[in-house]
DNA sequence: ATCTCAACCTGGATGC
DNA sequence: TGCATCCAGGTTGAGA
């Protein structure tokens, strides 16, 4: 899916919707909508106040109610324009005053949920999210890594520990930090934690600058591809020579996810 | 406490 | 050309 840089890019692209009221909704795939298929309709007539993000979760603030959108693996939110047809696999359409917002999702792992402002702090997914990976203070990052015996790959992917990283940015960060994905977090020296922190921040910052990674399906809020995939050093490059030492990049399933790394540079 | 695996889906790439 | 198999940006829950 869209990881933090992709979701943030989309959030910014959708800014023109702020201040507009939702007029009607079209739901083609009811199972994506929570807590029940009709919930979206209760937002009609309400004005969008702002769009926020936590980790990979988008929050559309309609004042007394919020719409939470998680894009899963292949979800996309694309702002409609005159004469432009909905993207393939469009499942939900939110008709705002001046433009429709299309929610498309090939694999259908994403979801849209209506929550009252009062319920939000108790929402199971929202409440479990750790601090946002972009901009987390170093001390906080240090504390969370030191507190765990889990392997780096599993820990960084865990949204309860740190929110926003996914398979791409974890592999890219670990490579840049020179750390092996199976290293127990607790075994890192303070210098290594510092290196990892800087790598994560730098990867996210640069990916956001390039409007995300388009490996397969990802498109931004305008329906266009990002460009950070051109700067990927290891993700999707198994067997190719390590950009630093030329050793063939290794591939292994770690924490249930395909993981590419340099067996020589990453220790 | 931590790990592995299956499940939820569709479609592109690869191999015979 | 056709068909089988594997793999893919995420998350959750069961069982070891």
TrEMBL record:
Q: Which residues form the Formamidopyrimidine-DNA glycosylase catalytic domain?
A: 2-110
| One Pfam family matching this protein | zf-FPG_IleRS
Q: Name any cofactors this protein relies on.
A: Zn(2+)
What InterPro entries does the annotation carry?
FPG_cat, FPG_Glyclase, FPG_N, H2TH_FPG, Ribosomal_uS13-like_H2TH, Znf_DNA_glyclase/AP_lyase, Znf_FPG/IleRS
Q: Which Gene3D superfamilies match?
A: 1.10.8.50, MutM-like, N-terminal
Q: Which UniProt keywords apply?
A: DNA damage, DNA repair, DNA-binding, Glycosidase, Hydrolase, Lyase, Metal-binding, Multifunctional enzyme, Zinc, Zinc-finger
Q: Where is the FPG-type domain?
A: 233-267
Per the record, what are the reactions this protein catalyses?
Hydrolysis of DNA containing ring-opened 7-methylguanine residues, releasing 2,6-diamino-4-hydroxy-5-(N-methyl)formamidopyrimidine; 2'-deoxyribonucleotide-(2'-deoxyribose 5'-phosphate)-2'-deoxyribonucleotide-DNA = a 3'-end 2'-deoxyribonucleotide-(2,3-dehydro-2,3-deoxyribose 5'-phosphate)-DNA + a 5'-end 5'-phospho-2'-deoxyribonucleoside-DNA + H(+)
The record's comment on protein family reads: Belongs to the FPG family.
For this protein, the record's NCBIfam families field holds: fpg, PRK01103.1
Please state what the protein is called: Formamidopyrimidine-DNA glycosylase
């Amino acid at each position: 899916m869209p990881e933090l840089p992709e979701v943030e890019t989309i959030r910014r692209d959708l800014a023109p919707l702020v201040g507009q009221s939702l007029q009607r909704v079209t739901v083609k795939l009811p199972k994506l909508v929570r807590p029940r298929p009709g919930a979206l309709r209760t937002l009609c007539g309400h004005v969008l106040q702002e769009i926020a993000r936590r980790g990979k979760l988008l929050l559309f603030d309609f004042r007394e109610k919020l719409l939470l959108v998680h894009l899963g693996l292949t979800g996309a939110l694309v702002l409609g324009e005159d004469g432009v047809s909905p993207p393939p696999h469009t499942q939900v359409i939110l008709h705002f005053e001046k433009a429709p917002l299309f929610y498309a999702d090939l694999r259908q792992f994403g979801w849209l949920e209506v929550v009252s402002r009062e319920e939000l702090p108790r929402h199971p997914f929202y409440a479990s999210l750790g601090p946002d990976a972009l901009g987390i203070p170093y001390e906080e990052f240090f504390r969370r890594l030191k507190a765990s015996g889990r392997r780096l790959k599993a820990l960084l992917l865990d949204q309860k520990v740190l929110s926003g990283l996914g398979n791409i940015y974890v592999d890219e960060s670990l490579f840049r930090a020179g750390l092996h994905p199976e290293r127990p977090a607790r075994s890192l020296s303070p210098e290594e934690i510092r290196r990892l922190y800087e790598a994560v921040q730098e990867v996210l910052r640069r990916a956001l600058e390039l409007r995300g990674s388009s490996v397969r399906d990802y498109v931004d809020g305008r329906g266009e591809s990002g460009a950070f995939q051109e700067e990927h050093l290891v993700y999707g490059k198994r067997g190719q020579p390590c950009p630093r030492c030329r050793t063939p990049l290794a591939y292994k399933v770690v924490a249930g996810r395909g993981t590419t790394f340099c067996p020589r540079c990453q220790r």
